[in-house]
């Protein structure tokens, strides 16, 4: 499923209009931990700690500090209603959240205002950002499996990183197990997600992701599977990358 996107082509669009419309319909439910976005709320603490810990290691910060990310500029691509943006803003980061759905951005702005948090939310795409902008940390969490062209998308993400910056990506592997658990079980049996949330053929294998990143002079320095423990009703890190996984990448 790999493509041959030219790493120098930063103008190619990765936006899928059908994906934008799908998540726009869910915008009002983003902050309801018992609503349709409940699985995202349940996995969010794990995502937050994984990103925070990687950033603290990279930038030599005290992970226990309440202001551990102060002074760092962070871009959250496909931010939805801000489930990641708000906690990182509370840790002191200068957070910019972008999403092509105007309704998602409206919900995000309203929620941040109510929480008295200063977050720069923009209804735009990664391709439309000023190419002169640079970020210490770029997040693409559960995004690459929804874009049209993974190579073009990651190319643009890489261009926005400062020298020595950090990129964190989470997505789903593509194999029989991810089809069984990520689609059949999650969407049709357990109904954790609305039917049609994912397309199996758009999932990205770790090998493919490694190649895409390498073309943009980024190397994976950390990686972990993300698995669900039904007995504990909790998500955790795991060596098993067959379904959900996260990676940290840095410049080569």
Structural class: alpha/beta
What is the N-to-C succession of helices and strands? HHEHEHEEHEHHEEE
**Which overall shape is indicated by the principal axes computed on the Cα atoms?**
globular
Number of beta-strand segments: 8
Note the main sheet: 8 strands, mixed
Superfamily at the CATH H level? Vaccinia Virus protein VP39
**Share of residues in helices:** 25-40%
Radius of gyration: 17 Å
Q: What's the number of helices?
A: 7
The CATH topology annotation reads as Rossmann fold
Any overview of this molecule?
The protein is of the alpha/beta class and 252 residues long. It has a single domain (17-251), classed as Rossmann fold (3-Layer(aba) Sandwich), CATH 3.40.50.150. The protein is 33% helix and 23% strand. It contains seven helices and eight strands. Strands 3-2-1-4-5-8-6-7 form an eight-stranded mixed sheet. A hairpin with a 4-residue loop joins strand 6 (218-229) and strand 7. The longest helix is centred in the N-terminal third of the chain and has 21 residues, at 38-58.
Quickly describe the structure.
By secondary structure, the protein is of the alpha/beta class. It has helices at 17-24, 38-58, 85-90, 102-114, 150-159, 176-189, 206-215; strands at 73-77, 94-99, 120-123, 135-141, 161-172, 218-229, 234-238, 244-251.
């Amino acid at each position: 499923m790999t493509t041959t996107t030219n790493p120098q082509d930063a103008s190619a669009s990765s936006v899928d209009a059908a994906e934008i419309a799908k998540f726009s319909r869910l915008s009002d439910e983003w902050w309801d931990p018992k609503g349709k976005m409940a699985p995202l709320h349940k996995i969010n603490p794990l995502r937050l700690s994984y990103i925070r810990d990687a950033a603290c290691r990279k930038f030599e910060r005290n992970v226990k500090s309440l202001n551990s990310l102060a002074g760092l500029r962070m871009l959250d691509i496909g931010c939805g209603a801000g489930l990641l943006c708000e906690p990182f803003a509370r840790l002191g980061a200068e957070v910019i959240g972008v999403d092509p759905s105007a309704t998602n951005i409206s919900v995000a702005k309203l929620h941040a205002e109510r929480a008295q948090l200063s977050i720069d939310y923009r209804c735009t795409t990664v391709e439309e950002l000023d190419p002169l902008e640079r970020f210490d940390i770029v997040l693409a969490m559960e995004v690459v499996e929804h874009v049209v062209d993974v190579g073009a998308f990651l190319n643009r993400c890489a261009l926005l990183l400062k020298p020595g910056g950090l990129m964190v990506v989470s997505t789903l592997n593509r194999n029989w197990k991810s089809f069984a658990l990520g689609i059949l079980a999650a969407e049709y049996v357990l109904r954790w997600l609305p039917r049609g949330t994912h397309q199996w053929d758009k999932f990205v294998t770790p090998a493919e992701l490694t190649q895409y990143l390498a073309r943009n002079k980024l190397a994976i320095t950390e990686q972990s599977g993300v698995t669900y423990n039904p007995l504990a009703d909790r998500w955790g890190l795991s060596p098993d990358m067959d379904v959900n996984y996260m990676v940290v990448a840095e410049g080569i």
